[in-house]
Amino acid sequence: MENDHRDGSEAPDSGLRRACDQCRLRKIRCNKELPCSNCKIANRSCSSTGVGQKPKEIRQRVLISSQYERKIDHFESRLGGIERMLYELTASIKNNNTNSHSTVGAEPLSFHSTPAYRPSPCVEDGDVDEDDHEEPDPAFEGTSSMTAQTAFASEFIENAVTQTPLRDLSPSMQSALSSLKQMVSIQNRKRTYESRFQHAKAVPPGGFRELPMPPLQVVISLLREIKDQPPLTFTLICAFIAIEDFTLHCRKVYFATEDFSLACLITVNVGLYYLFQEKSMQASDEKKALLLEYHYQCRDNIETALSNIPLLFPARMENIEALLLGATYAIETSKFSLAWQLNTSASMMCQTLGYHRLPDNANDKTNDAKSALFWFAYMLDKGLALRFGRSSVIQDYDVTMPKAMGRHMQVSDPWKVVLNLWIAHSELQGKAYEQLYSPAALARPLEQRLESARLLVDAMKELVKDTDELSRHVKAVGKADEPVMIYNMNLVLMSDEVSYWGSLCLIYRAIPAQAGSGSSSFNEECIAAARRSTDCHLMCMEMCDKNLFVQCAYLHWTILYVPFIPYLVLFCHVIETSDADDLRRMGDFVGSLQPVCPVSEAIDKLHRVCQVLVNVATLYVEAKAQQQQDQDMTIVNNDFDMYLSQLGFMPQGPAIPQNNALLSPGAVGFDGNGADGPFAGMDLDAHTSQLGNWFSGNRHFMGLLEEDLSQFEPRVWESSSVI
């Protein structure tokens, strides 16, 4: 500070004098009095005029205005994006240099507790500890030729987008190729599928009992209402929990004379989450906002509780209930990997407790509840296993429990029939993967796969027939004073038809196409099933066009839960044949998703990706039409083909001749090599490889819905064709 005073750095009006002129010239210490001690001793005049001092520059005041703050935030955001890109690039390089893959089969839960909610755009939500900075191992998705081709795809995309300079292409072609490039890049990205909880909060110091809950009076009113008239939530999604048991759980939480379990907290919040959601869709705007506030409060509690599930969760009935409810919540929020983890643990607990076997005591009152828990775990297990291309946790040869819901369940008889049909459908889903698309199935002779496909087709047709009979029965005996029940039943049966025809489409896909059919990948039955399923979907959306809750629930459980194969079949068929009617169906499907996008992030992602495919298909058809007239369009078509091939949608290999007799029993030779059948002397490896690529491509495509698509922003382009 003394040096600052001596060199005159202080302002004149600061209350402190400068060193006098004589002391400054002689470069001696000045006590800055008037006169100073040096001048008094030397008997000199003492003055301080600033002679010899460097004039002080006027400093400009720095104003941090809102404009500067926005610029700083913009720079921070861009730097965060660069960090993420560098991280992904490093991960990609490591992945390409590593030949080993980490497998995730029926793994137990491995969640950590979430200390706090941190909504930072540069920090992943969820739990952060010392090990979280290390790169997690990638999740296994089944045998996939796309994984093996990752290096080629990356090199191809990096070196050249097209042989035709982009500046020479129309904006629509540029956008289409750019969108395909983004999709391939996202699919080839190393996926960890970690369970992240965006809305999880820190556990209060007093424990879970201190978490904020919806008001008691609101919950009591809701419980009284559902006791008199059970909602759709407890008829289907939560059918394995009786309303009386749910009420008892609510009492434990709201009148906690002692600590309640984590499972009890999950059960209460998931049940209320669904009830507030369902009720909000029927309420006025003013009341709707309040109900949604309670709905989101339950959502935060669910994620907080799920993030604190211990690794060694005891095998108890209430824990199985909580895990299954957590799995349904994960499916509703498009966290299918989390649903797989939760349901895997529930399935293992069911087997640990023997719920999959005939009970020793037939008079045990809990038998129906145990049966319901097991079959819900079974249904989710088969559906999610097919989605991920993995083996099921529950094997059919180990189950002796009758494939039916308990007779004493508090569900009306028509709904029990629906649930039993769901069990039968899930069994066929498991067999479809095991016998047609698993690595062991693809290694079987084609004749054996065709026989399995024929048997599965017959079983699926019986399921469709039973559904039609139930629909006619409901219409015939339905009471006029039960319009809501009849409406809900008709809607559920129509959505089931969408699922059943979708499964038929998947089974038919395993059968080679006929020579000369116009398609090298799909037989006529497969395409017909895809069309029927899509048409039924459009009818479903029309039936519930005034209720976003019903539309949202239908889309989550019918279109997203098990990949909607028909849309991808139609896309591939349009790419191969330029079928205008199927292109229109694709456009109608995408249009049906639009109204629900604002209320569901998962559906919004599906809409964006499907919109890209229908636009690409439209432009691809146009490019093929111009191919003979314009050589540049031939080059563009080649680029389309390469991208679509990397996505698993383009056929790779010639069609295998087939006749209609293949679908009838006894038409195929079963001597082990097909010498007596219609495939003698043919290259059957091409069809097997193509089938595996296509199934992998579909799984990877649906995997996009769990990816961060914030950077996937395809531009909207115009086309001469009207979709």
TrEMBL record:
It comes from the Eukaryota. Pfam families: Fungal_trans (PF04082), Zn_clus (PF00172). Residues 124-138 have a biased composition (Acidic residues). It comes from Podospora appendiculata. The chain crosses the membrane at residues 554-575. Residues 121-144 are annotated as: Disordered. This is Zn(2)-C6 fungal-type domain-containing protein. SMART domains: Fungal_trans, GAL4. PANTHER family: TRANSCRIPTION FACTOR PDR1 (PTHR46910), ZN(II)2CYS6 TRANSCRIPTION FACTOR (EUROFUNG) (PTHR46910:SF5). InterPro entries: AtrR-like, XnlR_reg_dom, Zn2-C6_fun-type_DNA-bd_sf, Zn2Cys6_DnaBD. Keywords: Membrane, Metal-binding, Nucleus, Transmembrane, Transmembrane helix. GO terms for molecular function: DNA binding; DNA-binding transcription factor activity, RNA polymerase II-specific; zinc ion binding. One of its GO terms (biological process) is DNA-templated transcription. Signal peptide: none annotated. Residues 19-48 form the Zn(2)-C6 fungal-type domain.
